[in-house]
Design a protein that fits this description.
single chain; Immunoglobulin-like; 2 domains; four-stranded antiparallel beta sheet; three-stranded antiparallel beta sheet; 15 strands
Length: 167
C-alpha cells in the first residue's frame, strides 16, 4: 500500500500572539491481515510431517510500521511537540521580528525508517513592533508651522509620537 504524509497548520493566517498548531497525518501505514490456510492430507512444517485429512492453520498478520515525526520548521516560529500526541506541534506567533506574508512550514515523518517530507503554507502577520518615542529640540526654528521640519526629518522612522521643545 502507498504511504503518504501530510502536514496541516491552523490557523493559516494567525495574528501576533496566536498559537499555531501543526499536525501530521500518515495514511497507508496499515497492519497486514492474518491469513488462514486450509489443507487436506498431510502437512509438513519445519521438516516435520503431520498426518491429517483436513485442517487449517492461522498465520499472524504484520504490524503497522513504526512512525516518528520531525519538529516542523518555519522562519520566525519555534515549534514544540505537545504532550500526549507525537504528531502535533505548536508555536506562538511573536509580536515582532516576522517577515509578513506567505511562509513555508516544512517537516517530515519517518515510517518504517523511510523519510516522507511534508509542508504547508502559512501567512505570517506583520507584527506591531516596538514604538518609537522621541523628542526634538530645534533651537533655530520657530514654533511648529510651515518652517519647522523636525518631524519631517524622521518621516522614515516608525514614529508614534513627536514632541517639540520651545526654549
Amino acid at each position: 500500500m502507498t504511504i503518504s504524509v501530510t502536514l496541516t497548520v491552523t490557523p493559516s493566517a494567525p495574528a501576533p500572539g496566536a498559537v499555531v498548531t501543526a499536525t501530521y497525518a500518515v495514511t497507508g501505514n496499515n497492519p497486514g491481515a492474518g491469513q488462514t490456510i486450509g489443507f487436506s492430507g498431510s502437512v509438513t512444517l519445519g521438516g516435520v510431517t503431520y498426518p491429517g485429512s483436513t485442517g487449517a492453520l492461522s498465520l499472524p498478520g504484520t504490524p503497522a510500521a513504526a512512525v516518528s515525526y520531525a519538529t516542523p520548521a518555519c522562519p520566525g516560529l519555534t515549534f514544540q511537540n505537545t504532550a500526549g500526541n507525537p504528531a502535533v506541534f505548536t508555536a506562538t506567533v511573536p509580536a515582532t521580528g516576522l517577515t509578513a506574508g506567505p511562509a513555508n512550514v516544512s517537516g517530515s515523518a519517518s515510517v518504517g525508517g523511510t523519510q516522507y517530507p511534508a509542508s504547508a503554507t502559512i501567512t505570517l502577520p506583520a507584527g506591531s513592533g516596538p514604538s518609537c518615542y522621541f523628542g526634538v529640540w530645534d533651537q533655530g526654528s520657530a514654533y511648529p508651522g510651515t518652517s519647522w521640519a523636525g518631524v519631517q526629518k524622521f518621516s522614515a522612522a516608525p514614529v508614534r509620537s513627536a514632541t517639540y521643545y520651545l526654549a
